[in-house]
Amino acid sequence: MNNLSSNTTNGDGVKYFFLADGWTTGRVWEFSGLWNEQAKRRKPYLKKQSLCIHENGELLWLFQAEESILMLEVKPKTPACASSQPIGQVMLKRLLSADQVIERLCEENVFQPHWRESDTRIANTDPTNTDVTNTKDNLAIAITHDAQTAATKTR
């Protein structure tokens, strides 16, 4: 069962990861160790995006994380779900860069379940659309905008 996907980041200021529907984040580690909310005076910046991919019968949601995060614990949302899962928790040690996310989204079936006409994100959900370059450029614009917004929020 593939609950998540991960790779390394190239230092673009924001990192990403995919997480299966029904799973949530737990503890977070940064350069100095376990995230300390009291010392930082805030929670780590982790935001579920409105894009997901369908892989092996599961929805994998795209999450955004701030650059200082090195590792994340992920686990099933409910204890009942955990007892039916062969995996109780997972540590994500390598996160994706924006470029890696764009490549992955262009390779997969991308879904945006809460699509609004006013939303500026573009998803290639049309299997007859062969213009991957245009879709990839539009995804790059949306992800770059999200990264810039996240960077200003964490400062």
General description of the model:
With 155 residues, this protein is an alpha+beta fold. 27% of the residues lie in helices and 33% in strands. The protein contains four helices and nine strands, in the order E-E-E-E-H-E-E-E-H-E-H-E-H. Strands 1-2-6-5-9 form a five-stranded antiparallel β-sheet. Strands 4-3-7-8 form a four-stranded antiparallel β-sheet. Strand 1 and strand 2 form a beta hairpin.
- Gross morphology is globular
- Please work out how many helical segments DSSP would assign: 4
The end-to-end distance, rounded to whole angstroms, is 37 Å
Briefly note the structural class of the backbone.
alpha+beta
